[in-house]
Every structure is written in C-alpha cells, then in structure tokens.
C-alpha cells in the first residue's frame, strides 16, 4: 500500500491542483466530478431561496441558513422575478452516481447531489434528503473560500461518496466535553460530510444499571438523547462505543465488580464465561440504547482482548471453555455472538474489532450480521466469503503526547532513536484510499480514530479527521491539497501560514517527548501484561526523567554539561522555533473568523513546550552556577553561586505552576473540570493494570506536568541547600532558610 500511495502522490504532483482548488475554492471532501466555466459571479442577500416540494428539505434549509449566518453573516431575502434564484430540490433518481467501492449503490445514491452554478440561478438537486444536505454543505464551503465578498464559479458539480459510512472516534474516556462543545464537534462532522460520531464515555455516562461506575462529571440520559437528536438533524449518528471484554478498568477497578475479573489481580479484562459479566454488559447496553433513540449502529469494542481463553483460576475458568470450543478465538467469537445478539434484538447493527485472538479459522463462529470495524489483509477474503461486512480503520493519533505527528521531526533534531516517523494525514489517507481491502472486502465505510489515551485535546485532531475521512468520499484526491483546504475552511480565508503552525506544533510536541530520558516507573504499580501475554512477575511501567546537575563538594565529578550538551543545544534551537510559532498563533487569532478556540489550545500547548525548553535551559544555568561554585577561590563567591542555583530551582517550580494554571484555564473552556468529587459522586482513582494512559495517573489536569512532578527535584534541592549551609557555616557565612515544595502546584 505504501509504495502505491507514494506513486499516487507523485502522479498528483504532476497533474496539478484540482479544478476548484486551482480557481481558489476549497471543498472537503473534494467533489467527484467538476466542470467549470471561465467566469465567477457574486452571491449575496439579494438572492431568493426557492424550495421544491419535499418534507425532506427541512434539514438542508436549516443548514443553509445556519451556514450563511455563521460563515457569511447574511440571510437570503431576495424577492421578485428579477432576483437570482437558489433552488433546492429533491427529485428521486435525478442524480446518477459513478464508481463507488461500496456495493450498496442505493444508499450511495441517497447521498449524491448535483449543483448547477450560474450568475442568475443556482440549482442544488438530490435524490434524497442526505444528498441535498451535502449539496448545501458544499455550497457553504465554496462561499467560505474568499475574504469579503461571496464568490462562486460558474459550472456544474456532481458528487457522491465512495463509502456510505464515514465515522470518527471521539474519545471522552479521560475527560468530559461540555454540551456546547459536543454540539460544535457534531456540526464540524456535518461540515466535512462525516456521518458517524463514535463516542467513548466510559464512566462519563449516568448508567442506571451500574451507578457505581458513574463519575463526578457524567452525561445524563436526557443529555445523551439531546446530543443524539442534534446529530440526527445534521445527518450525523452519535454512536455508542463500549469496550468489552478488555479495556474496562473503569468498570473492574470498582469493588462491586472485582468478581467479574478474568484474573483477580488485574482490572483490565472481563471473564467471558461468567454469566454475571453478561448481566452487567446487557444492562449497560440497554442504558445507552434507551438514551440514543434513532441511531442505527453500536460499537461493541472487542479491542485488544489479549487474554480471552487463558485464565484458569478460582473465579474464572476460561481455559477449559476455549479448549472445548477449539481455540481462544472461538471463545471470543462466542462472546461476540452473545453480546451482539442482545444488541441486534434491540435494533442495532453491531460493529466490533475483528482482531487477535481471532484467526481466520475462527471466523465461521461469528454471526454473519456483524460488521468488522477493521480490515485485515490475512482475513479479508474470509470475511467476504462469509458475508461479513467490513470497515477500514485508521488513526490520526496513537501514543503521541500534546499534539499528533502531522509532520515528522527530522532525525537530526532528535536525542533518541525512534521506531518510525509519521505524517498522520498522509498515512491515514493512504490507508483508506489504497488498502488491499478495497478489492478483497465488502466495505461499507471507514472509522478514523483520534485516541486521547495520552490526554490530547480534541482540537488537535480536526486536521486529521477532516482530511482522512474525505478519502472515503473521494479516494482520488490529493491529501496535501486537502490539508491546505482544511486550513482555509477551519480557520477562515484570512488565516495565514497554518501549514507552518501545524508543522511547528508537531515538531515542538515531538521534542517535548524526546527531550527527556525513559526510565522504569516507581510512581505506579507494575504492568500486568501486554499483547504477548501475562508478565510473571509484572513489569515496571515507563516514566520520563531528566538528569540533574551534580552538587558540588559531594565528591560527584560527573560532567553534566558535556553529557547534556546536545540536549541544551537542541532546546535553544527549539526556543527560536517556539518564538516563531507564538507569533504566528497570535497573528492568526487576530485574523481567523472561525474556531479561534483551537488556536488558544495551540497556544497553551506551545506554552507547555516552551516551559520544558526553559526548564532544560535553567538546568544548564544551574549547572553553570554549581560549576563556578565548585571552582570558586573565595567562599562568598561560592555561596552566592549556590544561592543563584537555589533561586533558579524555585523559579522552575513557579513557571511550571503558571503554565499549568493557564493550560487548565484554556482546556476547561471546552471540558468540565477533572475533579475527585462533584454532583454527589466520587471518582475512584485506580490505574489500569495493563494500559498506562497518562491521564489515569492523576485525578485532575496535573497530568500535563506529571513528569515534572515526578522528577526528584525535592531531595536534590534539599541536599543542595544542606551543602550550601554546611559550606557557609564552615566559612563563617550566614545560613539560608530554604523552604521548597516541588510537588506543590499552587
């Protein structure tokens, strides 16, 4: 796939820009057929809206009015026979579709539309309501392409999707967005013709059947239905996403459900042979479905169920059941059959993750109505043979911290070797557009995930969401052109150098991670196991640390400056880039007409990166002071240098606390506070026994500076203060009272 996609990019570069883009218009996804004439024309309030007789037009009309008000700041109030006309009409079978990989051409045709553009008449025609809605969205995007006056090209657009389902995964497992933010995200989905919004809430939903799981901040059933209805009004299905049997520490950490664990010592995975496991899950399924009326799908996330069929202990005897069935994969298939059957009885189409421990020989044990949410080159043909539909899964974020890898930091700017470099947009688009599953599977859609396991803000994902999903509408588009179009559509046509902003943020975040060393963690319990099996004994998790300068007069002769010269050099380089990024962000906050909040989030991320750079620089300064102190011939000089070092240690703490406070203020404009207690509920803080997700390490937002807090600065600073006072007293100089609380975030 990768070689073929590189060839495609080279071909796209030779072909040049698409017709609309070359004329200065930005549309995502890129329309399938575009024929333009040479002239453009103006569009504005003097135009008159005319609607064909159809009740299905209401949602498209509402979208038109909302889009014009939000993007163009006017409504259409033209009247009379001489006023130019914008006509919306649903005419069944009027728009013929072309090639589409999705086998259900009827559903594809329902989303098709035609736009005819001329100076006195615009006509948007569709076979059904969804197509008319998408035609209006395209018109709004065209009108959003220019500063000031609204311009449109003369010509014709005929458009339809390649796949019926274009879904994104929205991760609220470690935080809860405010209601207005959820609605804004749903509106963004509609704007990019994304029609599935998979939402992972975990304990952020008020389960009536399992109240012990409900966290301090949680959506009520009424709020969930409100979001569902809001999505349906924008042709976006808000789809429940619930993990099982693995990834459910949010359930199994509670004493009430400890007896359901597969292994008593691990809160990661459920025992699939325990009838009470199904009783719990079915109650949770029913709670979600009751608050999600009108939606077709449900995600039964069987993600990374590593240990199914392996347990043989006092509370779970899966091993014997797997042996009777013939394999651990068949035992997982049995679990899927039971869980999916319950959901199907309640009217849902069930999507699951068809992955390990399922193997091709296990697939006949699956129900045929299931949908596999991730294609698999080794098993695609088998799924198709069995009549099981599939979706292409890809992600635009994995384990990155602070910001996705939209651009890969050059190797010569790294301290440590990395396994591979990414450009998340290019990789994700290529997976959808050129995967072998397009020939070997019965495809119905895609799901693009923005995993927030490391606590990233969802605003960082939209570049990937908007561009990668568009490959499932028009796989022949150029992802680089789409990225450029995204900047204009998301931030407004007056925004400048957004590509540079995303590149610099990618680089800053990658260096933020790379600039520290990896060590075994002493701050959390060891890891129970991984995809290869259970660890015996459990293994330490990983943390990050920085070396602290040697304290003089203690016999430590290590050369910190020499050992960390490259770290200091790179930190200085990245400070200059950080300055450039700050300037670009501030300029664009002034210029942008849409989504300014995203730029505020980017500023906060940049500030966190800057704080790290300053800290590294200050450690270099501290080392210089300590080196001078150790070489000073006059005791007062040595004491003064030691005091300068202590002052810098306190300054590091204060600067860290300030940037954390500012970040929290920015994050909580969109998020409800992460707190231990609220609304009569308490949060049970216990980390996952298998997955080490950074936000799990803390109850509040301090995970943003977690590694700083874990740095052994407290004992180091106390030792430095003791050395300073001992040296001063031995030379008849005054003591210094040094009160220092490194972990104090005030």
Description:
It contains 23 helices and 22 strands. Strand 18 (527-530) and strand 19 (533-539) form a beta hairpin. The strands form six sheets. It has an eight-stranded parallel barrel, surrounded by six helices. The protein is globular, with a radius of gyration of 29 Å. With 746 residues, it is of the alpha/beta class. Helix 3 packs parallel to helix 5, helix 17 (498-514) runs antiparallel to helix 19 (565-591) and helix 17 (498-514) packs across helix 20. The protein folds into three domains: 30-159, Chitobiase, domain 2, CATH 3.30.379; 165-173 and 184-197 and 220-493, TIM Barrel; 514-671 and 698-730, no CATH class.
Question: Notable features of this structure?
Answer:
eight-stranded parallel β-barrel; disordered N terminus; 23 helices; six-stranded mixed β-sheet; globular; alpha/beta; 22 strands; TIM Barrel
List the helices and strands and how they pair.
Layout: H1 2-15, H2 19-22, E1 33-43, E2 48-51, H3 58-72, E3 85-90, H4 105-110, E4 113-117, E5 121-126, H5 129-143, E6 150-159, E7 165-171, H6 179-191, E8 196-200, H7 221-232, E9 237-243, H8 249-252, H9 275-290, E10 297-301, E11 312-313, E12 316-317, H10 318-325, H11 328-345, E13 349-352, E14 371-372, H12 380-386, E15 389-397, H13 424-434, H14 437-440, E16 443-450, H15 462-468, H16 479-491, H17 498-514, E17 517-520, E18 527-530, E19 533-539, E20 542-545, H18 560-563, H19 565-591, H20 596-631, H21 635-667, E21 677-678, E22 681-682, H22 706-710, H23 713-730
Parallel strand pairs: 2-3, 3-5, 7-8, 7-16, 8-9, 9-10, 10-13, 13-14, 14-15, 15-16
Antiparallel strand pairs: 1-6, 4-5, 4-6, 11-12, 17-20, 18-19, 21-22
